[in-house]
Write a structure and sequence with these properties.
single chain; 7-stranded parallel beta sheet; 25 helices; globular
Length: 560
């Protein structure tokens, strides 16, 4: 088990102990240990057991639990608590704004044991009348339940990626004489996936027998499709066809419905026309080949007619890691360790942007620690040249739209990322006031994760995207495409408008560890959907180009 898996188990144990009303000091010890393990620079599984007990924040009791996890793969205490907890109470842990102690009150005092009962209690205003809740909390709970129910059965792209690729490989091996191609939402690189889809020439009866042996569940079938449920959760759909129709079906199922309709209307294409490949189909229609990730916006059809589709950014185009955290705040590694890993991976520079002082929960930097970090970075840049570390900060946008450092402090950074991390439950008017306040500060270089969303988990605060993009254009502010697969924020659907307004975008991983560096690929996948080229992406610039960009930006903003 890796550090994150162990930390997750301990964190869940802590929460369930609080939900069951067990010893608060003991539950806190598991929570603290989980936080400490996440930040360890080396795998805890590689340590001798005696060294595990010596880690700061891990005592003998918690250390024994970690050893148990490493040896047995599970915690008996955790399994016992899960068995004693109604499934509906476990589901309530997914409701944003409901911590373990509040769930304890709902379950033990109000006898609410599932989401439907909780929803009904909110509608009857029983929650607002309960001590420690109130009307605002009640309304937030209702909105969170609605969002959860809307997103039931949805998965982030990264959650299903390894399963999709492994099953594709297994199908090809098992049905060696037949074709299988992933299609649908996954092939179009959508950030959220409702089901995994394949086009295949395999025989339906053989396909059903295969999945029966795999203990997957058949839920529907027709002459040209089979629907399966994997692991009692994930939906799989198989379009059945022959080799003659294969390319046509693959193309159609790899397009949005709007895109197919636009092709049929603008090009008078009959969907029963057969071709040897998708490339041949596009050529038959007089189009440049349109990759699946661009088969969303009908605008791409016109560009394909003109043979003018964008040459979209690739993961290999990323030259610098912008937006990264070190152990100065809540990252897992030292700045030098992060830099050395990036050098090994072939990057030219890193923008270190630890959390600001308002993010006390993430060990945000005081003004004194900023000066110390800058001196440390100066020394590292001498040591690691030609690789360069740029001085930055992820500065919190406060409730009034101000930033949590003075302009004098902000002027000491090479660039500044501004993000909202607190008081996320707010109306659009409040969110816009905060965002526009930050954008209007001349020291802000990049607007981080614009809406604060967590895909399929948290909606994010409402914003007027056009107004924000227009303000960024007017103030020469770069907009981040946060590459973390749970964020992918700004939404790719607004890339086209941002480019139209001349706004520079930046694919950033928000990296807190070595593993997070590789999340850049998910930002690239959604950026491709928006037609972003490497020239329009800040993190694709070479170190020299990046340096020039920052110099020109300072002149535009009137910064000395």
């Amino acid at each position: 088990m890796d550090n994150y898996a162990i930390a997750d188990q301990l964190s869940l144990l802590s929460k369930l102990m609080d939900i069951h009303g067990e010893n608060a000091f003991k539950s806190k010890s598991y929570s603290s240990a989980a936080f400490a393990i996440e930040k360890l620079p080396q795998p805890i599984a590689d340590l001798p057991h005696e060294k595990i007990f010596a880690i700061r924040g891990i005592g003998e009791s918690v250390g024994k639990k970690i050893v148990e996890l490493l040896q047995d793969g599970e915690l008996k205490a955790l399994q016992q608590l899960i068995a004693q907890t109604p499934e509906g109470v476990l589901e309530m842990m997914n409701v944003k704004g409901l911590g373990p102690k509040k769930i304890h009150v709902l379950w033990k005092e109000l006898h609410i044991s599932n989401l439907e009962e909780l929803k009904e209690a909110c509608l009857q205003h029983k929650i607002a009348a309960t001590k420690g809740f109130g009307e605002k909390t009640e309304q937030n709970i209702l909105e969170a339940i609605h969002f959860l129910q809307q997103n039931t059965g949805l998965y982030r792209y990264a959650q299903v990626e390894s399963f999709a690729e492994a099953l594709q490989q297994k199908l090809q091996l098992h049905f060696s004489e037949h074709q299988f191609s992933l299609t649908g939402e996954f092939r179009r690189q959508l950030e959220v996936i409702q089901q995994l889809e394949w086009v295949t020439t395999a025989n339906k009866s053989e396909l059903k027998r295969f999945f029966d042996d795999e203990q997957f569940t058949l839920v529907a079938e027709g002459d040209d499709f089979v629907d399966i449920i994997a692991n009692d959760a994930l939906k799989l759909k198989f379009y059945l066809t022959d080799t003659t129709n294969y390319a046509r079906i693959l193309f159609i199922t790899s397009c949005s419905a709007e895109f197919v309709l636009a092709i049929e209307q603008s090009l008078a294409w009959k969907t029963n026309e057969n071709v040897a490949s998708e490339e041949d189909l596009c050529a038959h229609l007089g189009l440049q080949y349109i990759p699946p990730y661009l088969r969303e916006n009908p605008k791409m059809i016109q560009l394909a007619q003109q043979k003018n589709l964008p040459q979209v950014v690739q993961t290999a185009d990323i030259k610098g890691l912008i937006h990264s955290h070190s152990n100065w705040s809540d990252g897992a590694h030292t700045i030098e360790e992060m830099a050395q890993e990036l050098i090994r991976l072939g990057y030219e520079y890193m923008v270190i942007s630890d959390h600001s002082k308002a993010a006390y929960y993430a060990n945000g930097l005081s003004e004194q620690r900023i000066r110390e970090q800058h001196n440390y970075i100066d020394a590292l840049n001498e040591k690691l040249a030609p690789f360069k570390i740029y001085k930055s900060i992820e500065c919190d946008i406060l409730s009034d739209g101000a930033l949590d450092y003075s302009d004098k402090v902000l002027s000491t950074f090479d660039l500044v990322i501004a993000s909202i991390h607190s008081n996320l439950q707010m109306p659009e008017e409040k969110a816009m006031m905060r965002l526009l306040g930050a954008i209007n500060n001349k020291y802000i270089t990049i607007l981080g994760h614009m809406t604060g969303r967590l895909l399929a988990k948290r909606k994010g605060y409402p914003v007027d995207h056009k107004m924000i993009i227009d303000a960024c254009a007017a103030n020469h502010v770069v907009i981040e495409i946060n590459a973390h697969p749970a964020r992918l924020d700004m939404d790719w659907r607004w890339i086209d408008y941002a480019l139209e307004k001349g706004v520079q975008l930046s694919i950033n991983p928000d990296a807190h560890s070595f593993d997070d560096m590789h999340l850049i690929k998910y930002g690239v996948l959604v950026a491709q959907k928006g037609g972003l080229t490497k020239e329009q992406n800040l993190s694709s610039k070479s170190q020299k180009e990046f340096e020039t960009f920052l110099q020109n930006l300072r002149q535009l903003k009137g910064i000395g």
